[in-house]
Amino acid sequence: MTDGATPHASAHLYGMKHSHPVLASRMALELTRIPYQAHDILPGLHRIGVRLHGFRGWTVPALRIGPRRVQGTLAIVRELDRLAPSAGLFPADAERRAAVERVERFGHDELQPLARRVFQWAGGRDHAARTWIARHVVGVPAPALAGYALKPVMSYFRRIVYKIDAAQVRADLAQLSGLLDRVDAAIADGTIGGESPNAADLQVLTSIRLLMTHEDLRPAIALRPCGEAALRLIPVYPRPGLDALPPVPAAFPPEWLPTAS
User: Fold this and answer.
1) Residue 5: is its pLDDT beyond 50?
2) Looking at residue 211, what is its pLDDT?
3) Which residue has the higher pLDDT, 21 or 246?
4) Domain boundary among 87, 120, 141
């Protein structure tokens, strides 16, 4: 039994198995050794799904643990740290904890939404990427045909719900090398990338690992310290024991792509 948990506590995590924030929460639960059940929600319907499960907000990941309901990676990892402080999600030393929290916040505010926008834009623009989503994420029969059916749905979510356009994604990819430099610096100073992952590792490296599933982005990331750290932490995306996702087909114009450093 972990610190603060009870033999009767039950944890249920709701979200899409391919989602990088959901993966970060899964890994945090695994570090605490709190037993949990993962509930996969169909992409596009996840906002309604979490409300039907009694959550007040619309976002995933959503965690129900005992009587408590918590949403979002930042809130979930703090709830788990409260229940199981010995799991090491945050250092005990105040100065080191502050450093981890700074990198965690950077991962949450900058890397996490960038990786999401890039993934969603690729799916909305490119038929091969939509076919990939239909086959490996939604799991429908005849994925190539489903890819055509998904186009208006994904275009709606991309343009209307998430307000993602080509200019935004091109700017995201233009700034990616600089963001990866910041992650490499956090590895160099020991804040992340150590033998025992902390909350910042989970927040940052899951986003980088999702970016590395893109066939045309991986070469610019894989040989960097952050790419190597992401592969050590998550050799199989999203996780061993789940269906491993093959690379997302190339979808970005070559002139948009960051160069390997």
Assistant:
1) no
2) 96
3) 21
4) 87
Q: How far apart are CA 36 and CA 40, in angstroms?
A: 13
Based on the fold, state whether residues 80 and 192 are members of the same structural domain. no
When the pLDDT of each residue in the chain is averaged and rounded to a whole number, the result is: 88
What CA–CA distance (Å, rounded) separates 121 from 157? Answer: 10
DSSP 62: E
**pTM reported for the whole predicted model:** 0.88
In a domain, 261, yes or no: no
Q: In terms of DSSP bridges, do strands 11-15 and 36-40 run parallel, antiparallel, or are they unpaired?
A: parallel
| pLDDT at 114 > cutoff 80 | yes
| Whether 236 contacts 107, CB under 8 Å | no
Domain range for 190 is: 94-256
Pairing of β 36-40 and β 62-65 = unpaired
Task: Give the Cα separation of 239 and 202 in Å (integer).
Answer: 13
Residue 71's CATH number: 3.40.30.10
- How far, in Å, CA of 85 to CA of 79, rounded? 10
- Taking 80 as the threshold, does the pLDDT of residue 175 lie above it? yes
In this structure, are 113 and 145 located in the same domain? Answer: yes
Which of these, 102, 117, 94, lies nearest to 171 by C-alpha position? Answer: 117
For the cut 90, the answer to whether the pLDDT of residue 44 exceeds it is no
| Lookup: tokens for 259 | 């160069």
